[in-house]
Every structure is written in C-alpha cells, then in structure tokens.
Design goal:
Elements (H helix, E strand, L loop, with lengths): L7 E3 L5 E3 L3 E2 L7 H12 L4 E3 L7 H11 L7 E6 L6 H15 L4 E6 L7 H13 L3 E7 L3 H8 L8 E5 L7 H10 L2 E5 L11 H10 L3 H11 L3 E2 L6 H8 L8 H8 L20
Parallel strand pairs: 3-4, 4-5, 5-6, 6-7, 7-8, 8-9, 9-10
Antiparallel strand pairs: 1-2
Helix pairs in contact: 1-2, 2-3, 3-4, 7-8
The structure holds NADP nicotinamide-adenine-dinucleotide phosphate (NAP).
Length: 279
Amino acid sequence: MPNSLKDTTTLHNGVKMPWMGLGVFKVEEGEEVVESVKAALKNGYISIDTAAIYGNEEGVGKAIKESGIPREDLFITTKLWNSEQGYEKTLKAFETSMKKLGLDYLDLYLIHWPGKDKYKDTWKAFEKLYKDGKIRAIGVSNFQVHHLEDLMSEAEVKPMVNQVEFHPHLTQKELLSFCKEQGIALEAWSPLKQGQLLDEPLLKEIAEKYNKSVAQVILRWDLQHGVITIPKSTKEYRIIENADVFDFELSQEEVEKIDRLNQDSRAGSHPDTLTKGFE
Ligand SMILES: NC(=O)c1ccc[n+]([C@@H]2O[C@H](COP(=O)([O-])OP(=O)(O)OC[C@H]3O[C@@H](n4cnc5c(N)ncnc54)[C@H](OP(=O)(O)O)[C@@H]3O)[C@@H](O)[C@H]2O)c1
C-alpha cells in the first residue's frame, strides 16, 4: 500500500508511476492552471495529468518550471486528441504538446479515446516515440477489453496504462481484472464522478467512521483496488485533502460494500459511442 504521494507503482516496462496525481481537466489555461499545479507540487504531488484537448499544457509547463522541482522528480502525462490520430499526425501532435509543455521528454503519453479505425496506426507512432526515447511509458485511455485485445493483437509494445472512468458508480470489474492479468495499470479518471458521489449515504457513513471526507474514502478505495488515481481540484485545501489518504485503511467488507454501489453509470461518454473529434 502506498504511504505517500511520492510512492509509485512499477509499470510493466519498469518505469515507476506515482499512485496519485493531480488532474487538470476543465482547469483554465493561464493563472488558474498555473496556480493549481503549483499548489499541488508545493504540497507533495509529483504527478500531473493533462491532455492536448484541455488547452492548458502551456500553463502546466509554466508551473513545472516555476516550481523549481527537478524534472526527473516529476511524472507528467498528456494525451493525444482524437482529431490527431494516425501515424504522421500523431508524431506532429506529440511535438506540439512537448513545445507547449516546454519539456524534452514525456513520462506518459496516452491515446485519449479509441475511436474506431485509427488507433493501430496511432499506436505505431507511439511505439516509435517510445523507442526513440522521447516518452518513458505509452498507454491508452478509454479502451474497453475489446479495444485492448484488438490493439495488442498487432502491437509490439503492450500499453503500460489504461486510463478510464472509474468510481463507485462505475467499478469496471471485468476491465480491471483483464488489465491486472495483462500487467496493464488501470488509472481512474473522474474518481469523484465530478462531485456526484459526495452525498452517497454509505460513503458518508464510512467517512464519519474514519473522520475522513467522502472524497478521501473514494480515493482510498481506488488505492486499495490497486488503481492509480488523479482527482482534480483548483482549490489548495482540497488538493491537500485529497492527498491525505495514507493514514487509514478500509476493511475488506467496506471495500466490497462500496463495490456494490456500482450502477455502471458514467459522468462522461461511453468509449464505444464517442465520436467527438473523429468526425
Ligand atoms: N482520459 C479521459 O478521457 C479523462 C476524462 C475526464 C477526466 N480525466 C482526467 O481525470 C481527472 C479527474 O477527473 P475530473 O476532473 O473529471 O473529476 P473528479 O476528479 O472526479 O472531480 C472533480 C470535481 O470534484 C471537486 N472536488 C475535488 N476534490 C474535492 C473534494 N475533496 N471535496 C469535494 N469536491 C471536490 C472539484 O471541484 P474544485 O475544483 O472546485 O475543487 C471538481 O468539481 C481530470 O482532471 C483529468 O485529468 C481524463
């Protein structure tokens, strides 16, 4: 079990990835993202999750620089947007992201959504960037089991991470066990279901028992499932709160009770039907 924000899981290629990071979806480019990332880094976070489509890679890069933390102590993730899938476009989009971030290597690059027919060509470009040493780990996001099986049938490098929507209303049982069997780390996006779980009675009851918040109970449940998690907040007190999850442990029974809150319900899109950016 991780004991601090600096604790890592080892991906199947040996790269160490922090169990917890800060997400910056819907965080405005400019002061808002710079201040959020700086607040996280000041409070011990070393992992930041952005994406080209979030439009805030420059601010993330600025905050990294201004933090004064050595580059090699940080773990930075960005994602390739849907409209840029395909071999050549991916290579270009990667360079654009790196320029915006102001970095000379990336820790983790993800295919943001599978779409239907370009992810294998896209993956070839990911493999090239990985083999060229520009990215330490490559992975996917929003891939279902069938997407992973299809990709892996031709891939030379198996994805190291699959970042998917994961929270007590969407426990992704089959996908989680498939990824575990395959040695692919599962990473939870919208771990707090974008705030929609905060009034759930069971979570409130467990939170009271441990003198923790509902958000902390959910994030602890992620970690006890062996799932990497990247809650988003722009407020320093919540950034601190979300990381204060290393001093209590849910019982197995509580973990299972939380599992039973599953409704297969999503805050975001379904990977099989999302078309945004692919039209
Ligand atoms: N790969 C993908 O397709 C994908 C999709 C969505 C998200 N993501 C990644 O996953 C990250 C997290 O997901 P998310 O941003 O959608 O949602 P989330 O982390 O589940 O929830 C964020 C929301 O919860 C609030 N919040 C945060 N901490 C809280 C706390 N301790 N108590 C009460 N409210 C709290 C935040 O408000 P304040 O900011 O006001 O605190 C914000 O409204 C994203 O930022 C992004 O990096 C990836």
